[in-house]
Amino acid sequence: MTTNVIEIRQLTKDYGNNRGIFDVSLSVKKGEVFGFLGPNGAGKSTTIRHLMGFIQADQGSCQINGLDCLRDHARIQQALGYLPGEIAFMDDMTGLEFIKFMAKMKGMTDLTKAYELMERFELNPQGKIKKMSKGMKQKIGIICAFMHDPELLILDEPSSGLDPLMQNRFIELVLEEKQRGKTIFMSSHIFEEIERTCDRTAMIKDGRLISIEELQTLKASKHKTYQIMFATEELAEQFMNEGFECEQVESTVVKVLPRNNLNYLLATLSRYDIVDLDITKLTLEELFLHFYGGNES
Ligand SMILES: Nc1ncnc2c1ncn2[C@@H]1O[C@H](COP(=O)(O)OP(=O)(O)OP(=O)(O)O)[C@@H](O)[C@H]1O
C-alpha cells in the first residue's frame, strides 16, 4: 500500500525531436505542497496531463492515492481540484453560470466556499466570460479548483495572469489550505510563490528532472555565495585565475559560487589582501539559474 498521494514512476512520453518527458519519477506525500519548476516547454503540463489521465504514457506509470491515473481517471478527477494551464471556458456563459455549472458537475450543493473565494479574489462573476481579462478567467479557474474543498489540488501555473496583489492572495490561500492538511502539486515559474509555499520542489528541463531537494536543503549552507572585495583590481584579477567557479561583479569584487571547496577557498584567500567578505544565501531563482547553467528559457 502506498503512503504517497502522488507517485510518478519513470514516466516517459516521447513526442520526437527530444520533446516530451523522459524517465520522470517523483512522489508527493500527504499534506505536502510540492512545486514543479521549469522553463517554457520543459514538460510540466505534459507531466500534469498524465496525472489527470488525459494522455497515455509511452513508459512508466503514475498513481494517485494508489489508483492508476489513466485507468481510474474518472474517480480521480471527481475528487481532486484541478487548474489547467489553459482553461477551456464556455465563453457565452457568465462567470457565475460557469462556476455553478462546474459545481453541479462536482455534485456540490453548498456554494459557500465558492462565494468566499470570489470575495477573496475580488471577482465580479456577473459578466460574460468572453469579455473577461486573462486575470479574471484565471481567478475563475482557481475558484473552480478550490471550491469543493478537495484533499488534493493539482495546479498548472496557478497565478499566471494574476497581478502581484492577487498572486499574494493566492499564496495566502495555498498556505491556509496547507495548514488544513491539503496536498498540493503545482507547476510554476514564479520563484517567490514556490519559495513561500512549497515543502519540496522538483526542477525539470528538456523533459528531464534536474533535482528534487528539500527546500530546507536548498536554503542550507552549501548554497551560499561568497562575495570578496580585494584591496586592488590586480588582486581580484589574480584570484580569478585560481580556478574557482566565480565571477567578477565589480573591478575589485569577486563572487564565488557554491560547490567550491570551502577549506581550499579560505586557504587561498589567506594569501590575499582582502577588504571585505559578504556571505549571501542563493535565492531559489539564483539556484534555478545555476542548475540551468544561466539559461532560463
Ligand atoms: N501533443 C503534443 N505533441 C507534440 N509535442 C508536444 C505535445 N504536447 C507537448 N509537446 C512538447 O513537449 C514539450 C513539453 O511541453 P509542456 O507543455 O509539457 O511544457 P511546459 O513545461 O508545460 O511549458 P509551459 O511553461 O510553456 O506551459 C514541448 O517541447 C512541447 O512542444
From TrEMBL:
A GO molecular-function annotation: ATP binding
Source organism superkingdom: Bacteria
Domain ABC transporter: 6-231
A family per Pfam: ABC_tran
Keyword Transport attributed: yes
Keywords: ATP-binding, Nucleotide-binding, Transport
Record has Transport as a keyword: yes
Family: Belongs to the ABC transporter superfamily.
Protein name stated in the entry: ABC transporter ATP-binding protein
